[in-house]
Amino acid sequence: MQQLDERVVGMYKSIRQILQKYRSGKLPKAFKVIPNLQNWEQILYLTEPETWSAASMYQATRIFVSNLNAKMAQRFFNLVLFPRIRDDIAEFRRLNFHLYMAVKKSLFKPAAFFKGILLPLCESGNCTLREAVIVASILAKNSIPMLHSAAAILKIAEMDYNGANSIFLRTLLDKKYALPFRVIDAVVFHFLSFTKDK
């Protein structure tokens, strides 16, 4: 952790108040430069992402998707966007429009989306059908490179069966990709395991 100048801390804490109330318009320049900073996570947490408005979350996702590499974007999705979308669905039983658009925007970094949002959701073991249907609807409406989808199908097929995971699997298979044999084998074994359960 870097020792931060008090003026920097003060500035980002004041930006936090803007982000809590933000609806539309320009964001402060100091916020837009966060992805370019070496200690971007430390600075980001001064703004308390869990308190941002939904519109702020969408704008932040746009900025971070454009300016971070896949690995850093994955951290942003996993630590900031992922918990927020789960909380929102749990509280309101649907996803706020701005958060829906933020998830859609996160697909511009497909590897980061799968590793930062989709797979953690599948691995959590407590993903609700409502969460699965909402996130799957975003997947269904957008094109995703085959290799990223194939890797996700492989991972999900190797997990234990549950309703939410099968929704994601179905959505990705419905895209009718020409899949590598290894992925097809994993999907076949996944479904064959049901016959053994009988």
TrEMBL record:
Gene Ontology terms describing biological process: rRNA processing
Listed name of the protein: Essential nuclear protein 1
GO molecular function, one term: snoRNA binding
A Pfam short name: Bystin
GO cellular component: cytoplasm; nucleolus; preribosome, small subunit precursor
Similarity-based family: Belongs to the bystin family.
